[in-house]
Write a structure and sequence with these properties.
Blueprint: E1 3-13, E2 16-27, E3 31-35, H1 42-50, E4 55-64, E5 67-68, H2 74-80, E6 82-85, E7 92-96, H3 97-107, H4 115-126, E8 136-137, H5 143-157, E9 161-165, H6 173-189, E10 193-198, E11 211-216, E12 219-224, H7 227-235, H8 256-260
Parallel strand pairs: 3-10, 3-11, 6-9, 9-10
Antiparallel strand pairs: 1-2, 1-4, 4-5, 7-8, 11-12
Helix pairs in contact: 3-5, 4-5, 5-6
The structure holds adenosine-5'-diphosphate and magnesium ion (MG).
Adenosine-5'-diphosphate binds at residues 13-14, 16, 18, 36, 38-44, 54.
Length: 263
């Protein structure tokens, strides 16, 4: 049983504060979904937790099973069991996927026995063309292939907690189903804990959330069960902005002149 605990996390990037006091706890087997509009700070949250350089933690803590994650470089966070599926997977020319996985497993002290068979099985399961296993990592892959590739890495590395930053972006409906289903299976088979970041609840058809959190302007403004995603789908983020509603514009007089009069 593992727990990722984010407490009162505030962070800045480029000299601008983006996250304001985030509290989130994700345990093995759980799926937490963070939904929010563009620019809310969703990718910033994933970057800060995973240790992408350039982000400044202003306040708060992040621990994995009590270990201070923020004190570790990104590669040690990965070794400790955190895994990020990036919104825009990086292309790495000259480096084969299989080589990356071998190195990652060795660094974890895990066995690489039977890796080829494992890759073949997982490729079938995720609908990833096995021919692409022998290509450079993510190079010249379509958006859907990249996300299937990322999901395959997740499946093979078996992290404790995975952060999915818009797994659904750039995916067609079939790829989305295959990837989301594989992640959902991992929560049941290996007890993976998931922090899934998304705009859309179409991801949630396969990846069933235990909790949904709404992130607006760097704050979690609402948390609830899966039904919260339905409210969001119906009402949009406006209901959760935390801002005063826009004043209604009073009806104007009927003449044509009124229409063109400057306010
Ligand atoms: P989301 O993923 O929710 O769309 P992001 O976390 O990517 O939002 O971005 C949140 C805010 O932080 C945005 O206003 C964005 O412009 C800003 N931001 C992100 N990265 C940087 C950066 N490296 N320098 C300056 N501002 C940044
Ligand atoms: Mg983002």
């Amino acid at each position: 049983m593992s727990t990722l605990e984010i407490r009162n996390l505030s962070a800045a990037v480029g000299g601008k504060q983006i996250l304001n006091g985030i509290d989130l706890t994700v345990s093995s087997g759980e799926v937490h979904v963070v939904m929010g509009p563009n620019g809310a700070g969703k990718s910033t949250l994933s970057a800060v937790v995973m240790g992408k350089p350039g982000y400044e933690v202003l306040e708060g803590t992040v621990t994995l099973d009590g270990v201070d994650v923020l004190a570790l470089p990104a590669w040690q966070r990965a070794q400790a069991g955190l895994h990020l599926v990036m919104q825009y997977p990086t292309e790495v020319p000259g480096v084969l996927l299989a080589a990356v996985l071998v190195q990652a497993l060795v660094a974890r002290g895990a066995s690489t026995d039977g890796l080829d068979a494992r890759l073949a099985t997982e490729s079938t399961r995720i609908g990833f063309d096995a021919g692409l296993l022998h290509r450079a990592l993510n190079v010249d892959l379509s958006g859907g292939e990249k996300k299937r590739n990322e999901t395959l890495q997740l499946a093979v590395l078996e992290p404790k907690i995975a952060i999915l930053d818009e797994l659904d972006s750039g995916l067609d409906i079939d790829a989305l189903r295959d990837c989301a289903r594989r992640v959902e299976d991992a929560t049941n088979e290996t007890g993976l804990g998931v922090l899934a970041i998304t705009h859309y609840n179409r991801l949630l058809a396969e990846l069933r959330p235990d909790r949904v959190h709404i992130l607006v302007k760097g704050r979690i403004v609402a948390s609830g069960g899966p039904e919260l995603a339905d409210v969001l789908e119906r009402d949009g983020y406006a209901a959760f902005s935390g801002d005063e509603p826009e004043p209604e514009v009073p009806p104007r007089g009927g003449s044509l002149e009124d229409l063109f009069r400057l306010p």
